[in-house]
Write a structure and sequence with these properties.
Three copies of one chain form a homotrimer. The first copy, chain A, is an alpha/beta fold. The first copy, chain A, folds into two domains: about 20-50 and about 165-470, Alpha-Beta Barrel (TIM Barrel); about 55-155, uronate isomerase, domain 2, chain A, CATH 1.10.2020.10. Chain A is about 50% helix and about 5% strand. Chain A has a four-stranded parallel beta sheet with strand order 6-7-10-11, covered by helices on one side. In chain A, helix 17 links the parallel strand 10 and strand 11. At the A-B interface, helix 4, helix 15, strand 9 and helix 18 of A face helix 16, helix 17, helix 18, helix 19 and helix 20 of B.
């Protein structure tokens, strides 16, 4: 049955409270920041996009196939990964007809009603590509053709979009062993886009990481230090941090299972490291080593000034069948309960009173906002709270974050917004949504006479730009 | 001091946001579903009601004495169970004057202000019985008489109310060893009320269940399989499922303490089962056995198509004094923190990618909505989320559920509403409240321009009827 | 750059929902209780204030230096404790220029935007001291002088403020070994201010308390019982409770790490107590002893009628550097996840059905509101819920509490408000905020037709005065 083709229109007041008084203030606050440059201090966009600056291949390859935020929802409703074009590791067949994939996406786009993914996609369609019809099975091919045509135009190439999006700085996330070739090439190209790396050493600090041994060999090569002992391992990491800093890095990132921090003696470190080199490290060794390396990373951050980010609490690759067939980052990472008060104690006791350190802590466990994270950030000078992360990077998620954090930590112990995305084209949509929700949150404070309008005007600027610049020393 | 007797009036816009824009949309959405049939796929109404079709005895016996949701609140304020007519197991005396009990209830009815129980009762009084005065100590006897008089009328008998309530299907919850005599008699009677059983084998799968050994003997008898070994136990359960299915069952139900799932070998199963038969099973045996039986139940569900429901996280009979004196289900079951990400891993890894399975997961721990359950349901094809359960089956509880689940899982990985009640007369009140709250939730999305009105119209239908039908294969 | 000096004005409708219908009802409800006397059954004001009745020394000493709620926020932004006048234990130097400290406070006062501390301070400035300018770096000295001048006036002395604040009763919190000299002196003075003690025996019941042995010696002296055995220890505590009761105490208070309750045999008690006397108690001994003493305290409360308060879940002195330098209560107590369902089971099973006992339970873990505490309080006659505590004593914190507790426990199993403050001058601000938020909560119920206006009028009185009087037997 043919459905009508309704219009896609982004409302000017979207995401604002329907109360007219709140909405008026929210609109005013939002207007004052909507055109500010985008600062993206943490994310996963591929820097090669901007080296090659090739056109994006087609809508399915641009929006759907690389973005597990999106296809996991289709998969949850029983749509096979193969029919969505996701590629198995063994090279076995997957749907290759981009139009057919796109049609299937359109037919199931209703699944995204009420989700941030849906809100971002609508923004991307309307604002980036000028689409004027709602995405459905009936309009899918028409929209495909319209986007596809635009993708061939120079102004839809990555660098042009980067400029159009007014991105002031974009941080990638890179292995400790990365050569940062794309970052070098971008610098060499003369193009002015400010794309900086971030030092994420999980592949060598997590003794149970896939290919850990190979990573250590690579580290030897890249750091110019023969990593045969714990102390040389530390030296190699220090060398790599120097290199990353020279390439513009302002931060490190640590994707740990638990935020546990605990220092062991140098002797213990050496013993564990040797066991790992011999392939004999236990799970307990790995957990202890990670807890220790967070301490070491804080020490190094105090020395070199790199801002430290801790991203704990995801049970990665929960679905073994999907992981074995497709690899990591396929929409099957599931949050776990996470504890911070005891786990961060050693790190904060040793380094948390030192204002030279900034450690930005993220969580997937919202129960820790008011109970643990806001009280910690509201006391320790070194600690700041990262924005609502991943599943919580959403309208309601942001409102819960502000509502549970602000009264104890204020807004000034938070670190602004970051998009944490691999979907480059979604960056403006995500920042716009964040600015709208923050404006709406502040409008709630103003209309309830908790802050004055002029205070809210300062605050919205800080939430959109000031805090992120300060937290990441940009 | 005599108080005035204020009117009881159910407002047309009750439970809707007071914002006029939201309210207008909420009303429109609610109107479109308020008269849809009630689908009640999970509950505890006694099927015998509809076999005998006798009049309900009196208001106290209808509303208060069998409903622990209600008398627990009176008990919490120091009112003895005996004065409320609750019957001790040993047959010792309890108040038997229904009028006196009802008066005491009326005097303390103010305790229910702001509770869903209060909202349901007001609905039942006003809509089912046409009461026009508010229930207080002063009006109690008058209301008693008015209800009592109606209870004698044919149109207030169970079958007549079932029809008047427009119940399309009502599922009871039944032991694996149940003969389902009332269900057979209803079928035989020619009455068309669609009352189906649900297979709940806790009494035989929980090795620590009261009377486990007797239950196993009963299982032997009912299944026609001599349950002397683990494999015969499994065979007996399979037989019973065939029988339940033949009687119209569409689902199974598992009231477990923890949602832990883990398969053991056949040999281990046999050893534990033999220990249990000899009365030597340990608490650890029982926990392992339950974890294994959830795996087995999922396997059987894939084979026979019965939808699997998991209801974990209640510390049953927390109050030992009350339990010893009055037995189970006396308002002293208290929720516990519950973990799903690790506990469901084995089940979801083995069966969660199989779309033939539907496993509907409930929780009493709201912290798991956004952290664990929505991400799991937003990925695994087999998993759906049950509605806010028990203490959370309430206006604010439902709003928290939608607010914490929808952005990650959408509405389409949820399973609609179910009332889970033993209080037959409260069924329309509960479904009405749910429809109102869902309409209000969607109106919030529409007025914030997160979804369009026509999308919300689709969604309210799905929330009221579409999703429950799909989830329970009705 | 000189900033303008904006006006400080407390809006009549502050903290109310901006929806006009809600606001109208909230205002009406609030008006009916705003002038009710203040009942403050739990707090940490120094009773000596009212013995000496000296003028407060200066604004910095009045508002900032003794209040860790405030300076922790400044410290979190890297402002050293020394520059805020906080005094190190070793007597080493700290800033002593009160004007300079006050200026620094003013310059950073923007940090408190959106926090309850900011709301309270604004109330204190405007309502207690008649300040008409907003507190900033630019206005700091002017405001300092204005407050300082007032502090010299008789009507700003402690007793005069006590009367002006309409405090009907103020409870202090006192060690089991306290002589309650100030309470005696106040009684003897003829001044009518009703200041009562509260019995908090943590210093002797926590075997790991600092100076435990000294405290036991003091207990021997004060109780007139030679505390050389467990049974004499119990006897000494009973004696002290008699004394506290004679001085007007209505309650006991227990600041425990965990709410675990478990009784051991008299023999075990003796063995542990003897180990403690010899300085050989382990951490496990101490945990067991605390769990047992909560049982004993409940038993004594049934006998003597003192209301029992349990305050668990704070990891005290998380920041060891600050603790070593400045001592306890310096803004570095961090909440921990807390479990109640299992931990309170022994106490509630033994004493929870006894209406002679009132045990008021607090939490810093909001996840337990709907999951554990409301179901427990909604069943056990002896248990009531304390108000949102510490970090959660805030606008949003109170709204979450009501929203998560009321539907299961009603308002009638809660214990009204208490300010729990050492900042005497903030007491009216805190009670006013609480009354406003409760009025706003009820207005939400009224406008959504969940309760009627006349019911809300009863409820707001109970929330402001009725429940606290009943819970604390005042």
């Amino acid at each position: 049955m043919k459905k009508p083709q309704p219009r896609l229109s982004l409302k000017a007041d979207r995401f604002f409270d329907p109360n007219p008084a709140v909405r008026t203030v929210a609109r005013k606050l939002y207007q004052s920041v909507k055109n500010l440059p985008i600062i993206s201090p943490h994310g996963h966009v591929d820097a090669n996009l901007f080296v090659e600056n090739n056109p994006f291949p087609n809508p399915a390859e641009l929006f759907l196939i690389p973005d597990h935020y999106i296809y996991r929802m289709l998969y949850s409703q029983g749509i096979p990964m193969e029919s969505l074009g996701v590629r198995p590791l063994d090279g076995s067949s997957t749907e290759s007809n981009a139009r057919k994939i796109w049609k299937l996406f359109g037919e199931n786009y209703y699944l995204f009603r009420g989700t941030p993914t849906g809100a971002w996609l609508n923004h991307e369609f309307a604002e980036v590509f000028g689409i004027r019809k709602r995405f459905t099975g009936a309009t899918a091919i028409e929209i495909y053709d319209e986007i596809n045509e635009k993708l061939q135009q120079p102004k839809f190439r990555p660098r042009a979009l980067f400029d159009r999006f007014k991105i002031a700085v974009l941080s990638t996330t890179d292995a400790a062993t990365d050569t940062l070739e794309p970052h070098k090439k971008i610098r060499a190209s003369g193009w002015k886009g400010n794309i900086i790396p971030c030092f994420r050493p999980d592949g060598v600090t997590d003794l149970k990481a896939k290919n850990w041994k190979t990573n250590i060999e690579l580290l030897t090569e890249r750091a110019g230090v023969d990593v045969t002992s714990y102390s040389r391992f530390i030296q190699a990491l220090e060398n790599r941090r120097v290199f990353f800093k020279s390439m513009g890095a302002v931060s490190t990132d640590h994707g740990v299972s638990s935020p546990h921090t605990h220092e062991f003696t140098k002797g213990e470190g050496e013993r564990i490291f040797q066991r790992a080199l011999m392939g004999q490290a236990t799970a307990e060794d790995a957990a202890q080593f990670t807890a220790h390396m967070l301490m070491e990373m804080a020490r190094m951050s105090i020395e070199d000034g790199l801002v430290m980010q801790i991203h704990p609490g995801s049970d990665r690759n929960h679905n073994r069948i999907i992981y074995d067939k497709y690899g990591p980052d396929k929409g099957c990472d599931i949050p776990m309960p996470t504890e911070y008060t005891h786990n961060l104690k050693d790190l904060l006791n040793k380094y948390g009173n030192d204002s030279r350190l900034t450690v930005i802590v993220f969580t997937l466990d919202e129960t820790t906002y008011a109970r643990e994270l806001a009280p910690l950030a509201g006391h320790y000078p070194a600690m700041k709270l990262g924005p609502p992360w991943w599943f919580h990077d959403s309208i309601e998620g942001m409102m819960r974050f502000r509502s549970m954090v602000t009264e104890t930590a204020g807004i000034y112990n938070t670190a602004g917004f970051n998009d944490d995305t691999r979907a480059f084209v979604s960056i403006p949509a995500r920042h716009d949504l964040s600015r709208r929700v923050d404006a709406n949150f502040l409008a709630g404070l103003v209309t309830r006479h908790i802050v004055e309008l002029d205070e809210a005007q300062d605050m919205i600027y800080d939430l959109a730009n000031g805090l992120v610049k300060k937290a990441y020393k940009l």
